[in-house]
Amino acid sequence: MRLTTIVKPFQAGNILIMPFTNIEDIKEPRIIINDVEAIPENAVKHDARVDIMDPNTRKRCFLVEHVLGPLRLVGITNAKVSGVDKVWNFLRPEHRFAYSLGLGPEFVVGEEDGTQRPGLEALVNQMSDYVVKTKCKVYKSVAREVIYENIDPFGYKGRIVISPRNPGEGITLNVRLFKNSLENLLITEDGLQDKELLKRILRARTPYLIGLEAEEALHHAVGDVVADIVGLGGLTDVAVSVELNFFYHALTVGAIKKAQFVKEVEEC
Amino acid sequence: MLKINYTKPEDLITEFLKLNPITHVERNHWHLLKYGKTPSIALYLPRFLRVPVLTCYDYEYVNRSLAVLKALKDLKGGVDVYISTRNAELPEDFYSSLPSLVIEPTDMNFSVVHRGEGTARILLKEQVPNMLSNIWVHEDLLTKVQNLIWDIVSITHKYYPVSRGNEIAFRDVFLKGAIILGLDYIKIESESGVELGLRFLVPPESTEESIKLEIIRRLESHKRVDVLDIKIIKPPARVLPNKEIHKIASEAITEILKEPEYEWFPFATVFNDLSRSNSSILAVGPYSHINITTCDERLPAQEKILELFTSFISKVISLLKEK
């Protein structure tokens, strides 16, 4: 998969997406949010949401799945991201958490209304102006099949299987959220192939606010699965089959933390 | 299973004394304190018993604290334990700079922010008719008052499930940061009209002016209403978790359970008083405040969570001694 980066800043809702200035930052998939690197080791909370924290600075970013999933779904693999919110909304638990730590509201990078990232739709319509593919090709898969199961606090069982695929084959997804499911979704270096579904995912609100049964909740969950497996895990070539429970980030990030990876780099 | 059933405050104090005979009764008799020989950390078991009425919630809250206290009774290491029985100002000679843990039902979250409390008055400028001769007008007035009250206390949000009827655990996720308004009293007088006394919970960064604007917003459909005398009685509390006690507690909980999660405590407690003079404080404890609803709960104190919390406190004490 060729690495793809943004070439000039683009604001998508409450985040600003910026290019890296150092070429060394574009040698493998890399997203840095408010100076915290989005890698599995930095995921300090993964249940109803995903937070990452820099172990040295102790700075923490909240709701990073709503950055990582959408970026990868539109095909961006490398970018620096900054939150831009300046106003507190203390009804949001993440804002209260950030306030407790002495951080600002910009450290909460999820949207207030629980959507994935509708602000990225505008980018999808003008990709050639903002996005460039590099010559660097990276292939990352799991060393062997990962099977992970858990039970969430509500008693719902979840199960995920991540299987290796050959370099260049991309990501395939089968996602079930209770009664609803989507199958055979393909994510390549260009992002999600089905662009109509992409737009629905970017607009979809979290099941936490609309319930588990709505189709919109499934669309949101697909974005979250991509965030955890592809965004946080940095995978490029795997087959994912997942039956989600309610606090499903424990399942998906849990699987990524357990996985061992293989990586190939070409022309970089 | 450890089960504690108490119904009277006297019983609570008796039980506390049983746990620890070396106690010091403050001159106003509203709190009890054990001084350790080599105090390294103070554990405060605060209470917020509402004055003058003790509710079921109050008893249950203290019962939970006592369940924790029982679990901690055998701990060695100069631990100070404090339990208060009023949500009131602490005496000046009590304030301490000791690194302190305030034990509250935070569901094992760390809390360094507590909402404050205040009061307000609302005047509904209506002529109050003689009930006997104008029953229909009187009924209209009562309907207005009823609607006014519901509009004041009701909380809605365009995105979040905060309104009544939603699952309490989901509501609580959002309500901890809201301005909560409640009714304290109603006074109906023929000359001045109807007066409503309000109590409110106030988040940090709020002012009396912002509270007033919120009340006015909630009452925008009502006419002839004045909002008066908004007073923040107990300011919201906030300490930044950058002191040694916070680092040690964080290290301890990470080792035993997971990276700590911070959440606000929804009402003012002794934490608000202590935080004014001591920034080395942290509120933490097992159980949640939200599932305390009736007098009949009789909390079954799960041994697992108490063991977990006892391990946490032991770890904190040992880490503190190492420093």
Describe what this molecule looks like in 3D.
- Chain A is α+β, with helices and mostly antiparallel strands.
- Chain A folds into 2 domains: 2-133, Ribosomal Protein S5, domain 2 (2-Layer Sandwich), CATH 3.30.230; 139-266, 2-Layer Sandwich (lpxc deacetylase, domain 1), CATH 3.30.1700.
- Helices cover 25% and strands 34% of the residues of chain A.
- Chain A has helices at 65-74, 93-101, 121-124, 127-130, 195-203, 207-210, 215-232, 249-258; strands at 2-6, 10-12, 15-18, 30-33, 36-37, 43-46, 50-53, 60-61, 78-83, 131-142, 146-151, 157-164, 171-177, 180-188, 191-192, 238-244, 261-266.
- In chain A, the strands form 4 sheets. Chain A has a 6-stranded mixed beta sheet. In chain A, strands 2-3-9-4-5 form a 5-stranded mixed beta sheet, with no helix packed on it. Chain A has a 3-stranded antiparallel beta sheet with strand order 1-10-17.
- In chain A, a hairpin with a 3-residue loop joins strand 6 and strand 7 (50-53).
- In chain A, helix 1 crosses helix 7 and helix 5 (195-203) crosses helix 7 (215-232).
- Chain A is globular, with a radius of gyration of 17 Å.
- Chain B folds into 2 domains: 2-114 and 236-322, 3-Layer(aba) Sandwich (Aminopeptidase); 116-234, Alpha-Beta Plaits, CATH 3.30.70.
- Chain B is built from 8 helices and 14 strands.
- Chain B has a 6-stranded mixed beta sheet with strand order 2-3-5-4-6-13.
- In chain B, helix 6 packs across helix 8 (303-322).
- At the A-B interface, helix 2 of A face helix 4 of B.
- How far the N terminus sits from the C terminus of chain A, by CA atoms, comes to 12 Å
Overall, the morphology of chain B is: elongated
- The domain tally of chain A reads 2
* Uncertain spans of chain B: 1-7, 20-38, 47-52
Order of helices and strands of chain B: EHEEEHEEEEHHEEHEEHHEEH
By oligomeric state, this entry counts as: heterodimer
Helical proportion of chain A, percent range: 25-40%
The CATH class of the largest domain in chain B is Alpha Beta
Task: Specify the CATH homologous superfamily of the largest domain in chain B.
Answer: Zn peptidases
| Strand order in space, largest sheet of chain A | 11-12-16-13-14-15
Largest interface: A-B, 21 and 28 residues
